[in-house]
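Supplementary Text 2. Reproducibility record for the structural model of the 635-residue chain.

All settings were left at their defaults, and a single model was retained for analysis rather than an ensemble. We include the record here because the model underlies the residue-level annotations in Supplementary Table 4.
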Amino acid sequence: MNEKILANRYRLTEQIGMGGMAIVYRAVDLRTGHNVAVKVLRPEYNEDREFISRFQREAEAASKMTHHNIVNLLDVGMDGENRYLVMEYVQGKTLKAVIQERGKLSAPLACQIAIRILSALEHAHRNGIVHRDIKPQNILVHEDGHIKVADFGIARIANSATLTRGDNVMGSVHYFSPEQARGEGATAASDIYSTGVVLYEMLTGRVPYDGDNPVAVAMQHLHAQPVPIQAISPDVPPAVIRVCLRAMEKNPAMRYQTARDMAADLRAALEERGEAIPIPEGELGIRQPKPQITGEKTTSNTGRRHRVPGQGKSGRKRIILDIIIAAVILTGIFFGGKAIYEQTIYTVKVPDVMGMNIEEAVRVLKQAGLTETHKAMPNDQVERNNVYVQNPGADTTIRKGDAVILVISSGPVPFEMPNVVGMTADDATALLTTKKMNVTRDRAASSDVPKGSVMNQNPPAKTQVTRDDPVVLTISGGSIVVPNLVDGTLQNAEEMLTMNNLTLMPTLKYVTCETEEKHGLIAASLPEADNRVAEDTPVQLTIYRYPDIQSSATFSFAVPEAAEQLKIRVSIRAEGSNLAIDSRTYIVEPTDPRIIEETVDLPDNRTYTYTVYSGNTQLDQKVIQTSPKNAGGQD
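Retained model, structure tokens:
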């Protein structure tokens, strides 16, 4: 980074991390004064479409989630060539650093942290996101103890394309699931396996599998059993060990199928020892056990009142207790009703604008009482000006008037135009076609470049292009000199053109001559004689015509009946010649007449035939009948 202020808004104060894909900075948001974390794609990947796609996937995954145990996305954009994500800044350290400092964690603390990780995963999985890289390095521990799951950089969004290069080794091998080690796709069960490995490490201070190289570690995930937890940490409750080992089952079907289920068993394991943890109500859907209020109740079958254990000894105490309970209930109703009213009046659920054109998305958000801020970034999969990231995600409840961050596609991802000069035309076209570019080929004469090879390309090599940019390749056609055809017969001209690897343009031109002797001879050629052109170049010929000599004939042909439009082509050539003097195309609709009659100019007195084609199928071939009188200037 050459500048310390990104996008005229984020002042980068220090580098706090570096991964294989991005560099992370602590920064100050100059608009709010808050600390943020800015993740910048490493410069060497600014033109790498795969890493750009991964970076965009992280933004898209983060935009789908808003949760107190997930590092939330605040902004996304580009500054020059630098792509960046802005995340909330967590003041603290990674769980890996905590484990390294303490050696191992107590079972209650390890379970607390695991439940928070599972809370984040439950939210991600409900939104179709599989993290695929759960490890202590990606778990942030705030200085106040709050847990945040970070780095959805290789997350897989349900129904989206997975990575194409090294997809099976992108995560950290010590926390791989067996199915990831086999190169199979990761699922929610894979995240649960990785969470089990993290829990094992928290309980023991070591990873369950280790080795000299990644392959050795991966093989242990597939076939080995870890050292028993009780052999390393005898004080870990058996119930906690059972949860950890079930999460680490090698068969995904034998593991917990949801993060919610694993969290519930962890809580139950702690409650067996009286070490229940106060988790906010609603987190993972697990509610706190509510204490029973003891006192007096009525037996249903007798209608008599009796005391239950814990009842007060005097009626006065009972009355006071009833008054207190009533006051609490009324207060709850008042403030609860007030909260519901305020939530109804002042909050709104964010509508889903993913995939919408930006104009439509702005209209929908405005109708919902929300504002928006949007930025454009390249994306190969999304149509220009359509939304592919929104934060907060759909159905998130926020205050009316709040802003929703949108990222729209500015079109395909730019890349460096490859150099195809010197390649054969077919190879160059094949290469550019793999990049989904539209290729047009021109031909030019060249005595230096072999025939069929690329002489020139536009755009030039190493310029920034996208797949939407048209490409023109100039192909060497070899080199040939146009012979002198003037004052010769058309038949002689056809033979010379064929001999010199040239062809005849099938639209002869005519010019009137003053003497009968000139009739049918060549008046001019284009290109002119002695010009150097590419082989197979069509040559335009102009023929002399004497007014009194018959020079045209009529022919007709039938078009087959068809329920759809037909494209009919007619080629006319002299008998014995391989060069057409005339070629014409007809578009025939189903309701058009099926007999077509045409008139053609004949340049000399040779016998001419016409051939009718539909596509590559020959429909008819006949001789064009002419009157013998003065045909071609001869009696």
